[in-house]
Specification:
Length: about 150
């Protein structure tokens, strides 16, 4: 499987270890991007769930099955896919980055939170992986989608 960056930046505002240290229920990595930045699928897969409300901590989110891995894309401002859609890594725009969550459109600062796991379920933290370390190990394409 070929893996891609989900946004136009490789910078992190909060890394995997930071999330684990504070006991995050869904540890991942945070990419600081402006609201409205395209968020693309990190690999080929299928959308398993879409949450369009902003009530939960993750705000608007898209959950995708990428082969044996699952990924959660959180805090979106817009969603462009629906459950059951097939996505193409590095090409399919899942939505636009935002700051949604905690019942607010801007419950957080603008960023994309990406969690990836093998095994485990959404919001358990079980099986979650550091995507930046995973990309290096898998020799992932460092493709940056355009804004």
């Amino acid at each position: 499987m070929v893996w891609y960056r989900p946004t136009s930046t490789s910078k992190l505002s909060d890394d995997f270890e930071d999330h684990k240290a504070r006991g995050s229920v869904n540890p991942g990595v945070d990419y600081p991007v402006k609201i409205g930045t395209p968020v693309v699928a990190i690999a080929n897969g299928k959308v398993t769930k879409v949450v369009k409300n902003i009530d939960g901590a993750g705000g608007r989110m898209v959950l995708v099955q990428h082969g044996t891995y699952k990924a959660d894309y959180l805090h979106l401002s817009q969603i462009h896919v629906k459950a059951g859609d097939t996505v193409i890594g590095g090409e399919t725009v899942l939505g636009l980055s935002g700051a949604s969550g905690l019942g607010k459109e801007r419950g957080y600062g603008p960023h994309l939170h990406l969690s990836i796991r093998k095994g485990g379920k959404h919001l358990t933290g079980k099986g979650n992986l550091d995507y930046e370390a995973f990309m290096k190990k898998e020799n992932a394409k460092q493709v940056k989608p355009s804004e």
